[in-house]
Amino acid sequence: MSALAALPLTQNLAQNLVQSVDWLAIAPPTLTAVIGLAALVADLFLKDGRKPLLGWLSVAGLAAALLLLLPLLDGDRATFCLSDGTRACSYVADPFTLVIQLLVLGGALVAALLSVTTLKDADRGLPEGEFWFLLLSSAAGAALLPASRDLATLVVALEVASLPAFALVGLRHGDRRSSEAALKFFLSSVTATAVSLLGISFVYAATGTLHLTEIAQRVQDVDGQFTTLVHTGVVLTLVGFAFKTAAVPFHFWVPDTYVGAPLPIAAYLSVVGKAVGFSGLILVTVVALPSYADVWGPALAALAALTMTAGNAGALRQRGTRAYSAVRLLAWSSVGQAGYLLVPIAAAAYSEDPERSIGSTVAYALMYGAVNLGAFTVAALVGRTRSGNRLTDYRGLYATNPLAALLLAFFLLCLAGLPPGIIGLFAKVTVFSAAVDAGLGWLAVIMAVNVVVALYYYLRWTALLFRAAPEGETSGHRAPAPLTAALAVTAVLAVVLSGAPQLILRFAGTGLF
Q1: pLDDT tops 50 at residue 1
Q2: pLDDT band for position 383 (50/70/90)?
Q3: Is the torsion defined by CA of 134, 243, 328, 110 positive or negative?
Q4: What is the spatial distance between Cα 219 and Cα 365, in angstroms, rounded to a whole number?
């Protein structure tokens, strides 16, 4: 009889543990992961002459994953939810998730198009099956992260996005520079992750839950003796995501990693890596710990000021004749741009409408993603004939390849925030407004100074494009079809957004959660 009496209890427990899965909600990252696995398995059976098919399979898979975002626009979806009455979920496909997944999968798609050409030029110097498996695995983790609504899933997604990226940076056979870059990237990331996990354990110890919405409620009622523990946990948790965003002082890996990695991977890290870091940072601060804004707000404001200043200072120091100076300038520029992206997140701590501040970060990230990928695409085009990829290699580019020169000039002007790069100007204005509206006038002043400083190196590079070409330089830069497609995609996005900036600037005035 006792066994029969226990049967209903066992059935209820099983019902609580077994959760239905909304396969449509999780389709974009799932399809990306499946295509990556398919590319790895197919590599075992394809002859060397047919290995390029893996690249086109990966490109098609990423395009299909992007299309799977369309059915999710009809409303919020959630899955892997608790059935204890709290309705806390581990995966949520809300507007914030979809916008970041659009940025992540779109950035991965452009990086994949660039990689098709890079792998062909490498002439088996890069293992194709492993390359595509690692790239799509990282993209799947990056697409999962903005949908994560508990700290365990958040950390798993962060590591799934990061670990394949380490391997991609050092995947080039026999390249010492690539190996050193991968080692520096790996060691610094592992340290940051370990510190972040320690912070998460502190938050969990104080609240007894990993779900972000539950943490937001319970953390307000933490006993006085645990307050210091939570404060410490908040600061330590931010470290891991600050590393991913390349915020100072966790930025030192960026220049060497971008130079050592294959150029498409550098482009991928500059956009998708930042999207991962910023989306995680937003979820931890604004969603899980809004009541501790007095802790993370000043910390992020200080990080923003230091990051934009250090990034622009590093970009100013680049000498045009140094090997890979163009890539290094883009690397330091991405550090400076990370500082701008941090400003609205810091402002959310002081704003009466934090969602509007977060919208400013999302709008700026979309602008930055489109134009920065475009700049890397032109760098990949020039690098096919100028392996040193120095800034001086771009002198007279207009004479040899007018279209590439005009597009690079447009991308650089967007990053600088100057007409005709209207989208860059408006995006900077929204970030600046977020700081002013939140009462962070000092941060807005530092941002304004840094924007002016950045004009110098962006305009210096732009001017080089239209100077007289060196004697004997008459050949153009031939662009293979995949590279041409990547350039066309980024160019169309940048031009359309400059002509109709409201397409993304509307995020700066609406809630995303």
Answers
A1: no
A2: confident
A3: positive
A4: 30
Q: What is the pLDDT of residues 270-305, one digit of tens each?
A: 999 889 889 999 999 888 888 888 888 999 999 999
341 phi, psi to nearest 5 deg? -65, -30
Per-residue pLDDT at 86: 64
CA distances 90 to 12, 25, 81, 215, 268, Å, are 21, 12, 6, 13, 26
Helices (H) and strands (E) in the chain, counts: 21, 2
When pLDDT is cut at 50, 70 and 90, the band that residue 210 belongs to is: confident
Q: Is the pLDDT of residue 50 over 60?
A: yes
The values of phi and psi at residue 385, to 5°, are -110, -20
Q: Omega into 249 within 30° of 0, i.e. cis?
A: yes
- Helix (H, G, I), strand (E, B), or coil: what is residue 79? strand
Q: How many CB atoms lie within 10 A of CB 50?
A: 10
Token digits of residue 454 = 């950045």
Strand partners, 77: 93
In this prediction, residues 333-337 reach a mean pLDDT of 93
Computed on alpha carbons and rounded to an integer, the radius of gyration of the chain in Å comes to: 23
Please state whether the peptide bond connecting residue 420 to the residue before it is cis, i.e. omega within 30 degrees of 0. yes
Amino acid identity at 394:
Y
Q: What is the pLDDT, as a whole number, of residue 5?
A: 47
User: Please, which pLDDT band fits residue 229 given cuts at 50, 70 and 90?
Assistant: confident
Strand partners, 92: 78
Please choose, from the candidates 15, 17, 32, 39, the residue with its C-alpha nearest in 3D space to the C-alpha of residue 147: 32
Neighbours of 287 (CB within 10 A): 18
- How is residue 283 written in tokens? 């979820």
Cβ-in-10-Å burial (0-12, 13-18, 19+) of 354 comes to: buried
| Six-digit token string for 170 | 């050092």
In terms of pLDDT, which residue wins out, 232 or 224? 232
Calpha distance 69→396 (Å, rounded): 42
